[in-house]
Amino acid sequence: MNASRPSFIRRQSxxxxxxxxxxxTVGLFVVAAASTLLALQLSDNRRLLQETQVQQDLRATADIxxxxxxxxxxxxxxxxASAQSVWRPDFNxxxxxxxxxxxxxxxxxxxxFISSRTQGILNYGFKLEQGVIKTFLAGTGVxxxxxxxxxxxxxxxxxxxxxxAQDEPPVTLVCQRLCAGGxxxxxxxxxxxxxxxxxxxxxxxxxxGSQPIVRTVRSVVKIRNDQLxxxxxxxxxxxx
Length: 240
Prior knowledge:
By secondary structure, the protein is an alpha+beta fold. It is built from two helices and twelve strands. A hairpin with an 8-residue loop joins strand 5 and strand 6 (146-149). The longest helix has 53 residues, at 17-69. The protein starts with 16 loop residues before the first helix and ends in an 11-residue tail after the last strand.
């Protein structure tokens, strides 16, 4: 005699095909959302790194240019004794090396100057060429003069490099005698010079269609060696 099956016993079965497809679809949506979020995070992180690198490179470039330009007209190994002398009305000293700074007025995409440290008078300069700021290295001995890249084109492209002369009011030095025709127009003067450096650059190797990363830095550089201008003659400071 067959005993009837208890009512509490149920047949066990797996997921139906519809349930399986729904589960897979939900899982794919979750994975797609997570992948999109991860891609956005990586993109934002990459952009942040590029922004930081461009800003740091721009600041370092401006600091190097400012440090070198500030030394324009410095008296080093040559005429060291003259450089240490105190100016006096009867002291005839040739005009300082600082007179050779270009641009002397206005704005330019290249700045040139001379400086004397310990190896005689050397030429220095910075210019913008094909998206790269280059620095002029004065050669000594068998080494020839050359322009060398200061900024890395693989990191950023410099779109603007402008050096603007921003001179302050000159200071007239007092002599013991008036000029031949009277007055003090022939007395020497000191020109206090400063330059405004503007650099704008864009990050290189950005993904197509992304927002360009553009940064700008501005710095003001005051030349330490003020320009001494003799109006009587190039080697005579005051009228005699």
